Request: fold
Amino acid sequence: MRKPVIDLLVDNHPGVMSHITGLFSRRAFNLEGILCGPIGDRSHSRMFLMVDEQDRLPQLLKELVRLHDVQSATLRHDLDSSIFDPLQATGEIAN
Amino acid sequence: MKRNGAQIITTLIERQGIDTVTGIPGGANLPLYDALQSSNIRHILARHEQGAGFIAQGMARVTGKAQVCLGTSGPGATNLLTAIADAKLDSIPLVAITGQVPSAMIGTDAFQEVDTYGLTLPITKHNFMARSAAELLKLIPLAFELAESGRPGPIVVDVPKDIFLQETEFDAWPEPWVKPAPDDIPEAKITPIAEAIREAQRPLLYVGGGIIASNSAEDLQTLARKNNIPVTTTLMGLGVFPPEDSLSLGMLGMHGARYTNMALDEADLILAFGVRFDDRATGKVSAFCPNARIVHVDIDPSEISKIKPAHLSIAGDVGQAIRALIPQVDANPRSEWTARIAELKQNFPFEMPPNEDPMQPVNLLAALGNMLNGDTVVSTDVGQHQMWAAQILPFRHPRSFLTSGGLGTMGFGLPAAIGAALGRPHARVVCISGDGSFFMNMQELSILAELNLPVTILILNNRRLGLVRQQQELFYGERYHASQFHNVPDFVALAQAFGIEAFNLGDADDPIAALAKALESPGPCLIEAPIDPMENVFPMVAPGAANSQMITQSGAKA
Reply:
């Protein structure tokens, strides 16, 4: 089943990832996948977050927007969790 | 001009209007102290960084302005954490500037190195690590902006030692941050709320710290009186509505009066203004105001409908919302509803103790309440004494009651009282504490004595962690464990050892007269009041229960 993807535009500096993931862990939101990289002149980064939440998505978005480093947070319907599929393809765990 | 990072910080906080900071120096922040030494800023040397954090909070809570505390790296920073987390939960503007090991040593487990950025991330509104002296020109005004704007909160700026010392060349100082006037609320948001008030038969204002943060207590009173809407406040909102007013319902929730929680049950419209539906206020959420439409106004959009879905809401300044509402609501006597409120107060009053023993804690605090004048600031610690103070003391002015509401930090009272006395120089400050709480920051008696501030400390001594003992009695089958201190110091002798005047109310022929006399002492004074350890705070709602299910004094003893 496809899972929702949140598209975040954030300031690019060391620590911003901690702010995002920290919010997810302290508010007990599930975070299933992260795709992230700097864009443009590298002053900003874009993050795609695959989430496993339905009921609390509106609250999650409000709390993300509240973070100082987050410029925008949108729920993308033209994206889907298939962008994370390569994770599965190479997901073999060597012992 | 050319300045180093420490000089930039010092000048920028001075330009921000800060005249007093508090903290403790150490290896990593010594360059900052060197810059402070040659500035006009007064430094208050706390005896523990947690004390510094709460002294700064006390100043912030009485002035409404962001205040500054300082700590060095490692333990200096970890000791600040509790005060920072406390400021987060109570939305208090605070700027904590911490020293960090030099940039080149970060990540090497250097002496007194700890990940301050990581530790403070979940307990701040925002945090920074400075990466250059030039960056501080932006970060320091931004720290004040973030601390005071929107929903206030704590900001940490972590500064590696080499950044304090790094010199940078720049042309002009950045402008200090000035809080802008709050945005107007669109008419379209106000009209439906005015309409809801017009249609309601039994409206009720449930208000909290947001009224204080937005300096709108007078507007709230105007609105309530114009339309005759009864007002209940949270613990954080005490002081915004005078208790003598017939519309006053006092504090709601776990230790609210029965009539208060019963009125909430009967209301058909709840005007939740500057509140966040905290569990200590609402009790079991599904049973909170079951018959009411909810109007929620709060500056923080993420609070709207977080706990209780709102039928109407405004994410904006609550003061602006109230001022816009006033002309839109009618003068309405609401004689039926106000008569019902009077009836509830008559039939389900706050139960005073069955005897008139002046050493009974509620009686003692009631007597203290009669002695407070309009300028008095009260701070509390956390526990039974805090709830008794909240129940019985008459708070008539915003910023006159300082208490750790959200985090519930024992040890808050004394340093916050010191901060209050610094922030409001001519006011009498009374710190109401318990023996358990007082243990947690009593080292600050030392700086209190040094500053000779007019702080009166009243310790209700039951030789217990009283609220823990009470819960063990009521909910754990009277299996008392770890709630009694088998060794308790002579607090009078302890205060005297610090050079502070002190006496024991238990030794006084007339305890009330002795208390009144202590409040006139020009400097600090500590009063120990031995109380019956079996006293309980009533009424009480069991944690997780509905507010309508209150345990009362007469009920519990029956």
About this structure: The mean pLDDT of chain A is 88.
